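Quick entry between incubations.
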Amino acid sequence: MSITADRTTLDSPIVDAPIFDVAARPGPFTRIANMWRYRELLANLVRKELKVKYKNSILGFVWSLLNPALYLVVFYVVFEVILKSGIPNFPIYLLAGLLPWTLFSTALSAGTTSITSNGALVGKVWFPREILPLAALGAALVHYVLQTTVLIVALVVFQWTPSAKYAVALVPALAVLIVFVAGLAILLSAVNVYLRDTQHLLELALLAWFWFTPIVYPYRQVAGRLGSWAALLLLNPMVTVVVTFQRAIYNHLTTDNGTPLLPRDGLTWYLRNIGLTFAGATALLFVALWIFGRLEDNFAEEI
Amino acid sequence: MGSAIEVEDVSKHFRLYHEKPHSLKERVILLGRNTYEEFWALRNISFDVAQGQTMGLLGHNGSGKSTLLKCIAGILRPTGGRIRKAGRTAALLELGSGFHPDLTGRENLFLNGSILGLSRRAVSRIVDDVVAFAELDQFIDNQVKHYSSGMYARLAFALAVHVEPEILLIDEVLAVGDESFQRKCLERIKQFQREGRTILLVTHAADLVRQICDRAAVLDHGNLVSLDDPGPAVAVFRDTLLKGGLAVPPEAVGTPEYDPAQPIRIVNVGVEYPDPTREHLWPGEPLRIHVFYDATERIDDIVFSLSITDQHGYWLVGTSTGALGTEVPFVEGPGTVVFDIASVGLLDGVYDISVGAHNKLGGVIYAQREQKDHFAVANSTLNHGLIHVSATAHHLPGSSGVGDADGLTHDEP
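Done. Structure below.
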């Protein structure tokens, strides 16, 4: 049969719909393929997120820099001036772990509410709905890149040299973070359509999660007390990510008087952790896509 | 020609919770004792829309027609069945089709364009045409939240037709916007039809279905009750509406405005169609209306009146036994007055009947029964409007009438 209605003004669109059963539930692989076909929409939605967020705001993108800057000041005063943690060049140590954490928490919070807050779109048009949490992640990534400039400025000001050797672990660590937060955000965004307290519970969970991750305090301080149980800390994917960032950027294993800060293990230890976390994060992503596919049946009715 | 849309045994089931838990707390509190109703919005619907065909989907509110369209658009997933589509689809569901209120019209065009599967380049090529078609040149860079509902609909329709979809799904969108824009939309739809595109149109405007559709499906309470040419399908649609309209509790029939202090009451009104197998008239057919009364005492000064109004309450016909020269000398006990209308000159619609009994001067009203009874007219012709006229047209080649001194007096001998 022919479906070639003449297209006079448009060349072939990026999305070509073959004969397909719209009533069937696509499997995770089809879902990923659909997301890829709709990457242009993803880019537009990221643009939309950023535009809408800073519409009618005078400072605009500066706000995304003020947030980590404020954290930096508060934690510096509390931990360096008041508690005297003794971590040299604390701002760099803090920024190294705080920036990936901020990426994680903003992507997850925005991702969780992404379906409910885009009800106008979800109720009216078809597109792969996972694009919405991914767009929230994309917007968080843009902010992350901007915030990284603050870190780079700090490195220059403090004349700090990151580790070139461990820097190779940064890209896979960031990839793990992205896959992990994508899976979690896709899952929670669908759950939140049916149970709106998900978004509020998440706020509490993120607060606890932040303090359970060695961002303002050093990894070794906790690992040392746990002794042989220290490996349990690595069950928290954010520990793997944050510690890798700290190792590469902060690049100091102890304080000046020898207090341990970061794991002494070599690059392979970091890469092994990243590899294992990646496997777990990928499994989570597939489970999330499968659950999402079941829950999306009635999104349009529930929103 | 193949099918563009195949709907095969599609059902959609909802649970209607009496109290909808939207949070964990509510869900725990309501656990186990939250009652819900099983609700089948669609039951085993099957039909095909052939390539290039325009199908109308008729149904009263709550018949499931919008749910079905959402399933076909992929927005809702049916509980069972299969829906296959061949071709790129643009859906115009109610208003706005997914505009973000904080973005400008232009930004929304790019966003929606990519939702419909177009690249940025492709959208930038059609943007000017869309804006021109929507007549929004001055407002396209304003935030959409400042738009009126008509502007919203215009932008949505303009975009949907300019992305050149192979399949266009439309839900009642043509009901908004001013008349000239509606006409423009219709012209564009007709152009789409000429180009061989497939259209599925959800509406309850029977007139529109007859005007532009090749076929029509009628939904009633989630069931497909008719799949036919537009004329007969519209007639079935009228019947379902009528059934809905007559769903008055039986004990209430005949007594709603019964005033026991009055000497007469109207027991019932009967509508007799010319063809007892049909629950409607064709335009121009006769109609008989029986008014059954019961007078508890003798009344000498009495006239029975009959009014017909349309669904908007517009008064179309007013007559009475007095006006028709029928003498009712007196009434006592039960009896019937019959109104015979030789030719009902109305096009389609469901019309309300009101009857009354009053004295000859009209100052004393004994009994009334207002808009409790109905009759339906289904339009079998291709004419539209409100009134049925029996008309013919001739073509006279070679004679324009212009330039001839005596103009239109060129009658054939």
